[in-house]
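Tokens as discussed.
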């Protein structure tokens, strides 16, 4: 079994653990197994990377965290006062560490299997709890140092060894603070809700972390624009409620020698509050937390009344868009599966969010010029910037390839037993359910923002772009292997032909955008294009669903 350097370091303190009543050798073996399992678990930051399979995913994820840390370290370079810089740097570190704790390390904080498996054996609860705490400390130390390392190095070179010492102490205090509030969040949810609600919240944080990673790449090249910003600062009472000010104040106090009561009070809070939260965590949170964790086994449904209303709305929508009972049944089946598939949402939601925000990331170019907000809005409304919606269309049209994956793929045998003469209703219902549940809300929300910015005059363009998206979806569906919904595992080997189809989809999206732009200059050009697109959709819909069970058997079951 693989040994770890950190465990060899812990061996030097074995006698201390024995004096505390901990069976050190047993604790060491438990921690060793936990660290090995960490390497096998695919972190959130790597879950969209198929190449991570079969490798040390944890080590690969550290490279990704280091890349984000490099981005955070760049924030040390502009010539701002330290209080401003450290508020931003430490705020990003706190966010990343807390999001990582919630998204990837929840399995440790919420683990109830250890005691169920180990307590019946001759292992006392103190040894198990100590192993859990040591595991948390090792994980937090590794992730925090990886994320904050570039900022620490930049600060060391710019401000000297005193900065590095303060920074390392602050990181310890931040980790104590993060562990306490992460546990409080879990405890609060478990106090009022069951385990399913907590799992949903963890899933949302995983999605948030993935979205943050995707969006942060877009701003790395623009980070040095911060050097042009003129910052003014005036102390306010509410600054004492912002944790980043507590941790940023000591740098101003001890490095820039700004000895004021304001920074001294903030620095004191930065030491006292993490210390108090650590004591509260050990004395109060852990005992109650361990008891509440049993609710993780409670997966009771939520409000029956709310569920009934939602079900009625889904059935009404199914009757509206589906033309027979089988198609309607699989429309509802798809909607239910998509609502409950946490892994699918974890892979899908970042792409949907990226499709939503990518057009607006490009808006940041307007803020590089010294224009007022009114001038920016006027500039956007008088331009054809709404063509950026084609970027949303490109990302949305590619998400339909995920419809065949599921964490519950083992239940795909049910398709063999169904008395259905044709797979067409299954595929139609699934595709309609996917489009209406995910793609339609994202597109129209993004389109409404552009209508707000550019006015109702672009309404025909918004409709045309949506129709072009449907064409791309149908072309993608037509060219892909015919596969039943939710039949395949996420770890299945990716089909190389899909890469070519996705590139073709992107190319066609660009072609549609160019045609749209050219025909815009003609009288009623957009309206004519809408009619042509509707006709093409009708033809593609007819051709795409000429499918038999033999076609399905070639690639599915």
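Sequence:
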């Amino acid at each position: 079994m693989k040994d770890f350097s950190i465990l060899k370091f812990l061996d030097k303190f074995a006698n201390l653990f024995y004096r505390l009543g901990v069976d050190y050798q047993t604790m060491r073996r438990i921690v060793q197994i936990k660290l090995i399992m960490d390497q096998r678990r695919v972190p959130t930051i790597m879950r969209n990377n198929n190449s991570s399979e079969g490798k040390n995913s944890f080590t690969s994820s550290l490279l990704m965290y280091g890349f984000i840390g490099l981005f955070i370290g760049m924030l040390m370079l502009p010539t701002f006062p330290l209080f401003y810089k450290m508020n931003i740097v430490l705020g990003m570190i706190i966010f990343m560490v807390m999001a990582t704790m919630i998204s990837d390390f929840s399995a440790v904080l919420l683990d109830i299997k250890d005691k169920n498996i180990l307590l019946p054996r001759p292992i006392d609860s103190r040894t198990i709890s100590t192993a859990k705490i040591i595991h948390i400390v090792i994980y937090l130390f590794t992730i925090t140092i990886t994320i904050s390392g570039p900022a620490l190095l930049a600060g060391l070179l710019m401000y000297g060894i005193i900065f590095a010492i303060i920074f390392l102490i602050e990181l310890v205090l931040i980790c104590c603070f993060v562990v306490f509030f992460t546990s409080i969040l879990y405890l609060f949810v478990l106090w009022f809700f069951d385990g399913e609600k907590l799992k949903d919240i963890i899933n949302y944080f995983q999605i948030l972390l993935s979205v943050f990673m995707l969006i942060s790449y877009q701003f790395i090249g623009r980070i040095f624009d911060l050097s042009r910003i003129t910052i003014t600062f005036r102390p306010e009472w509410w600054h004492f409620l912002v944790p980043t000010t507590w941790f940023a104040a000591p740098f101003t106090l001890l490095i820039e020698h700004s000895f004021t009561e304001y920074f001294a009070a903030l620095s004191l809070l930065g030491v006292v509050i993490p210390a108090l939260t650590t004591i509260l965590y050990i004395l109060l949170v852990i005992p109650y937390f361990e008891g509440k964790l049993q609710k993780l086994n409670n997966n009771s449904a939520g409000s029956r009344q709310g569920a009934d209303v939602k079900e009625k709305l889904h059935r009404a929508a199914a009757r509206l868009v589906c033309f027979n009972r089988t198609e309607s049944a699989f429309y509802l089946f798809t909607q239910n599966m998509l609502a409950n598939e946490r892994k699918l949402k974890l892979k899908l939601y970042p792409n949907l969010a990226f499709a939503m925000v990518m057009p607006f990331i490009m808006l940041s170019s307007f803020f590089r010029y010294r224009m007022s907000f009114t001038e920016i809005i006027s500039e956007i409304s008088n331009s054809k910037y709404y063509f950026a919606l084609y970027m949303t269309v490109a990302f949305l049209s590619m998400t339909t390839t995920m419809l065949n994956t599921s964490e519950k793929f083992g239940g795909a045998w049910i398709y063999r037993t169904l008395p259905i003469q044709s797979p067409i209703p299954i595929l139609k219902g699934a595709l309609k359910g996917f489009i209406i549940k995910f793609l339609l809300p994202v597109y129209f929300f993004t389109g409404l923002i552009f209508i707000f910015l550019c006015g109702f005059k672009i309404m025909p363009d918004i409709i045309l772009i949506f129709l072009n998206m449907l064409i791309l979806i149908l072309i993608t569906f037509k060219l892909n292997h015919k596969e039943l919904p939710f039949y395949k595992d996420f770890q299945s080997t990716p089909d190389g032909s899909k890469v070519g189809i996705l590139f073709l989809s992107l190319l066609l999206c660009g072609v549609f955008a160019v045609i749209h732009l050219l025909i815009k200059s003609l009288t009623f050009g957009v309206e004519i294009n809408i009619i042509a697109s509707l006709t093409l959709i009708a033809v593609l819909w007819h051709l795409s669903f000429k499918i038999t069970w033999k076609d399905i058997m070639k690639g599915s079951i």
